[in-house]
Amino acid sequence: MQQNCGSRLQLQAIHKRFGHFTALDDIHLDIQPGELVCFLGPSGCGKTTLLRIIAGLEQQSSGRLLQGHRDISMLPPRQRDFGIVFQSYALFPNLSVQDNIAFGLRSLGQPKAQIKQRVDELLALIGLADQAGKYPAQLSGGQQQRVALARALAPAPGLLLLDEPLSALDARVRGHLRKEIRRLQQQLGVTSILVTHDQEEALTMADRVVVMNHGVIEQVGTPEQIYRQPATPFVAEFIGAMNFIDSPRQADGKVRLGATLLDMPQAASQGARVRLAFRPEEVQLLPRHSGGLPACIEQLEFLGTFLRARVRVAGLEPLLTVDVDPRSALHLHLHVGQQLDAHLPTVNLRCYAA
Amino acid sequence: MSQMSLSLPTLLVRQERRLLSLLFVILLLLLLLVLPAPLFSLLSRSLADAQGQYVGLANFRAYLDSGALQRALGHSLWVAGLSTLIVISSAFAAAWALTRTRLPGRGWIRAALLLPILAPSLLPAISLIYLFGEQGLLKSWLAGQSIYGPLGIVMGSCFWTFPHALMILLTALSQADARHYEAAEVLRASSWRTFFCVTLPNARYGLVSAAFVVFILVFTDFGVPKVIGGNYDMLATDVYKQVIGQQRFEMGAVVSVLLLLPALLAFLADRWVQQRQAATLTARAVPFTPKPDRLRDLRGALLLTPPLLFILAVIGMAVYASLVRYWPYNLQLSLANYQFERLLGDGWGSYLNSLRLAGLTLLAGTSLVFLNAWLSQRTPQPKPLLGAFQLLALLPLAIPGMTLGLGYIFFFNHPDNPLNGLYGGMTLLVLCTLVHFYSVPHLNLLTAFKQLDSEFEAVGESLRASRAQILCRVTLPLSLPALLDVALYFFVNAMTTVSAVVFLYGPDSNLAAISVLNLDDAGQTAGAAAMAVCIMATCALAKLLHSLLGLYLVRRQGAWRGQA
Known about the structure:
The structure holds two protein chains of two kinds. Chain A contains nine helices and 20 strands. By secondary structure, chain A is α+β, with helices and mostly antiparallel strands. In chain A, the strands form five sheets. Chain A has a six-stranded mixed beta sheet with strand order 6-7-8-3-9-10, with helices on both faces. In chain A, strands 15-19-16-17-18 form a five-stranded antiparallel beta sheet. Chain B is built from 25 helices and two strands. The chains are: A alpha+beta, B mainly alpha. Chains A and B meet through strand 5 and helix 2 of A and helix 1, helix 21 and helix 22 of B. Chain A: InterPro entries: AAA+_ATPase, ABC_SmlMolc_Importer, ABC_transporter-like_ATP-bd, ABC_transporter-like_CS, AminoethylPonate_ABC_PhnT2, Mo/tungstate-bd_C_term_dom, P-loop_NTPase, Transp-assoc_OB_typ2.
């Protein structure tokens, strides 16, 4: 098997403006060889623009791109070293599966036998060896996706770019392909960038996630870091669910959460009020009079592996979202209108400027 | 160091962009040379006297004072308006019957209704003379009315513009979403209410567009009124009379400008309406298929019968008349009228010229339209260039053939024009025909290109394939069906056109359709009918070839088009 040699990619102070609109503002990023990095953000956050700049399909307004030691800032796409998979796959409909995969190898002018060998190798790798002679229209969406992947990987590029590659597929196929792409990527060791608006995709596949919003990077970190220590309220809210509670800062540097006074989790934030944040699964619901804050369930939502409750807690302004595992729910006989006690977390609270 | 070694290929790729833009600019300049430049010549000529001195609007005033304008303009508007009304209502009825019923043999009926598009507009006029003229078969049907005049012009115009309207309306009606009909049914709407609330609103843009197209076609047509108009003056025939009859070029220019204005207005109005049209048909629409309904089929058959009979009668009469030895005294059938060497100085020469013109227009037109559409859609081009191109590509839709042809005389026959050697030759005829019919193929290919994934070029670049490789291996094979349609369109129109080329042909480049005109002028009506039938047969043959090639393509490409 031909081993890809993933290359390091450095983005330095990338700016992109369309007229007066700033699409990307001072992007710095260092992607290690063999790493899979996800650009995650809502639509319009600039993630696709950044990917297209890395591919050379768009020209940055200013800034530098380094692939390995090579400055690729001004190179046209054809002279950069990458493979790309689009959301639409963009498979050539008039070429068979094997001709699609061989397309890049033919442009490189490789000898026929070598091309044949490489195509067979890739077909085996994506598990479509028996579909080689078929045309894209005769394949399922998931199969087309894998062909597009094989086509991008065929010339053994140092960098693989994936632009929302799974969003046109249904949920079951998507889950399967996530694993498949990750396996291939790790097996080949190719540096990869995946653009997505699906947080689950980002969290399950990436070595590191780059969360973007309004053209800036909000946070870069491992999926766990992103989830456990969101750097900004935007990240906290965009990844998973989050409860926010505004609270005045006390004189002694403590903050009040419900009835309890807590040490300030982080000293960083300024201002008279702070915004405290905690995840729905960090709140505990207990029978009445177990020493928590009095709470009342206003809504219940069954989500399969857990129940999501909307709970009114005495002394707190917004309704809290609380996730309850099915066993506890059964134990508590959870129902709407029920009076309970809620235990709010006292450790690992995130704290932002209000 | 490495910077230096990289810069050369980088430069080449940069150059590629510049080369593509340069090519586009050159093609744009060519378009400028063959469309706006002649129009400008025409405009300036209309403001000058016979000696070329600038006289302002004096020519216009003179034409106005003669009273000819009011008469001709009134006639043209009346005839065009009436024909539009008749054609749109009957074509809409026919389109409804073809798309909303399960009448057997719909394909054949559709083909028959589209037949007139293969004939020159002179054919119905000649045929109507045989049907309703002084010695006509059905003269008594007119109850003393003369076919020579508005009656004949309207009938003839309806014949040849009917397919144009039918095609637009068929498209409009076949883009129906079955879910709308199901919703109407579930809400218990009567079939009349469904028609007025679903069918008609969905087709309204098609109706408007078809009405404008028919109006412009009739308003600017010259063939039908020339043959059957008698003394009924129309603007288009007036241009011909001024230029060919009286050699008053500046007056011809005046009338041409007046002919251009309403056409331009109709064109702008149509664009305005089209831009307001939001895509009502989403990608998720469920195509509509009519349910079996005997009563509805019967209604459809009733609606289809009049246009079908009229079209078949007109064509049948033309063919019959061309085969009869001496109408109406000797009804023996023979091919005598097809012996053009007896009737025309150059025998079959003009027919062969037409074939050459059609062939060359097909080749040049198809390649040029393809190249331009590709450059504008699939390569990076500066925005202002694209805007200019878009305008230039659609402009021919608004320019009447007579106006274009006269503009060509003024521009290319000007002694100071280095290209005046082209005048009277085949090259100029090809150029003029190509420009005259540029817009429809352009729109056709644009649609085809828009259906291709916009990322093909990007994928190609990432796989280090050149633009040319993507073009040859992907874009071209994928647009073959559209190219086939474009080729047929150019061929048929080049075979049948009269209006622009009537000013441009020379002794060695006479054309078949013009021979029809000249034969009719010389009283050789049977010969004229024979030549018109020849043109139609040739176009029908081309259409047949087109269908066979289309079938072959479907068979060859069926696998990857997902039809196998």
